[in-house]
Every structure is written in C-alpha cells, then in structure tokens.
Design goal:
It is built from seven helices and four strands, in the order H-E-H-E-H-H-H-H-E-E-H. It has helices at about 10-25, 55, 65-80, 105, 120-135, 145-170, 200-260; strands at about 35, 65, 175-185, 190-195. The strands form two sheets. The chain has a two-stranded antiparallel ribbon. The chain has a two-stranded antiparallel sheet with strand order 3-4. A hairpin with a 6-residue loop joins strand 3 and strand 4 (about 190-195). It is flat, with a radius of gyration of 43 Å.
C-alpha cells in the first residue's frame, strides 16, 4: 500500500533530478577567452610587459593561451624587472608549514591553496617595496630609477628573511644556549658549552646587510642632490656671466652711438674747408 503524501510533499525522484540539473548548471565551466600572440602582435596595455618575451617562448609560431594566463605571465614579467624578489615568498604548505602556528591567515581559518606562493609574504613584499619607493620619491616602472628599485627590492627580500628568523626566535628564544662542543674521549660523554643562539647571529647579519642597502640608497640620494646642486650653481654662474657680457656690449653700443661721425671740425681756410681762405678786414 502506497504511503500517503502530505501537502507540499514532492516526488523524491523529481527532487533528485532537479538537484542534479542544478548542480550541472552551477558546475558548468565558464567561457574561456583564448588569445594568440606572436612577436609582431600589437599588445594591449595589460600585456605590455611581455614585449620581447613572446618570441622567446616559441620563436617559430604564435602562442595561444587563455587571457587569464597571459595576464598572470605579464604580472610576473613586470614584477621581475626589479630582481628576483617575486620568487622569495615561500610555498604554502598548510599545517605542514614550519610557521603555520604563527600565520594570521591560518588563525583566521582561511582555506589556502597548497603549493601556491604565500599570499601574506607576497602582500608584505609588495607593500614594503611601495612604501620604501614612496619614502625616497622613486617612481616604479621608470628605467631611470631601475638601480634604486632593485636595491629596494633586495631590502624587502631581506625583510622577509628577518621576519621568518624572528618567528623562529619566538619558538626558540634563548639567546645563550648549551650546545655540544665535543665528546670526552675517555667516557664518550658529550661536552657542553655556551654559545649564542644561531638565529640571533643570523638576525644580526640580515639587519646589518639591510642597513647597508639603506645607506646605499641614501648615498645615491645625496650624490644626486649634490650633482643637481652643482649643475644649478654652474647654470647660475653661466647666466650671471652672460648677463654681464650683455650689459658690457650694450654699454659699448651706446658709447659708439654718441661719438660724432664726421671727425674733428677743420679751421676756416684749411685745405678741404668749404669756406675758402680768410679775407682781410677793411677799415670803414
């Protein structure tokens, strides 16, 4: 005997079929835009960093990839112009990561993509690069600032290493540690001695190297400022000299204009005089 159906109750077969269709609709792949490029292609602004690179990918024929992949490659090419900083972010290993207990993203319960670059370190690297460039008025993307941008990038890379070293120090904070220095040949027992924590030594080296990079950036700023000041001084001296020369020439022109043009006046009766010889005066 068939069981009774209540109001609003639906056939389980129909429900299952409808849910299956809905699942198929939501999981159907979206349309992918494919782009074909070769060395002579006119590149849109978003793919401009790939200029000169396409023919190296495949010099004999055009390359076809999804637009998303082209943009991802262009982003990598743009970021790599200032050095290898884009490769330093570690790969996310989830709970297998050595630093996962200190990761704010893991603490927030986010589901991260395994083996992808750490989004936290990627963000910090970009943020530090932007902040330092802005602090010394360096314009990213301009060839004239390439040496400065590379130095800034290296400084940010070191800061990433300083951060990792600090997290390791947080779990192994003792500055002076007991370490095995050797083995007693008679008893075979280890001989312990005091030694500075290796992570402290590494932190000192990293910070010292980073400070040298900062000093080189400041030295570059000072040398450019000194060079600019010297050029400005030379320009001012040149303009002052040019003004003095112009005033002297003007005074010379005025002086020449005031001189008589016919020469000194000749006495009457002198050769060349229009008045002729002087006549004697007669008594009346």
């Amino acid at each position: 005997m068939q069981g009774a159906q209540y109001k609003g109750e639906q056939n389980p077969v129909d429900v299952a079929e409808r849910l299956s269709q809905k699942k198929l609709q939501t999981t159907s792949p979206t349309q992918v835009t494919m782009i074909t490029l070769d060395k002579d292609s006119e590149l849109p602004p978003a793919l401009e960093p790939l200029r000169g690179m396409i023919e190296k990918i495949n010099p004999d024929s055009p390359v076809t990839m999804p637009e998303k992949q082209w943009k991802k490659l262009a982003k990598w090419a743009k970021g790599s112009r200032t050095g290898g900083g884009r490769e330093i972010p570690m790969r996310c290993m989830g709970t297998m990561c050595e630093y996962h207990k200190q990761c704010p993203l893991m603490e927030a319960g986010l589901q991260l993509n395994a083996f992808q670059p750490c989004p936290l370190e990627e963000h910090l690297l970009e943020q530090w690069n932007e902040d330092m460039a802005a602090s010394i008025m360096v314009k990213p993307g301009e060839v004239a600032y390439a040496p400065d941008l590379r130095t800034i990038n290296h400084s940010s890379m070191l800061e990433i290493l300083v951060r990792r070293n600090s997290m390791e120090l947080a779990t192994d904070p003792a500055i002076i540690q007991n370490v095995v220095m050797g083995v007693d040949p008679r008893t075979g027992e280890p001989i312990y001695g005091k030694q500075v924590n290796q992570r402290v030594t590494e932190a000192q080296k990293l910070v010292s190297t980073e400070e040298k990079l900062h000093s080189s950036l400041l030295a570059t700023r000072k040398s450019k400022a000194a060079a600019g000041k010297k050029i400005q001084q030379e320009e001012e001296e040149y303009l002052a000299g040019a003004a003095e020369f112009a005033e002297a020439k003007e005074a010379e022109v005025v002086e020449n204009a005031n001189k008589p043009t016919g020469g000194d006046p000749q006495p009457a009766g002198a050769p060349g005089s229009s008045e002729g010889p002087a006549q004697p005066q007669q008594d009346s």
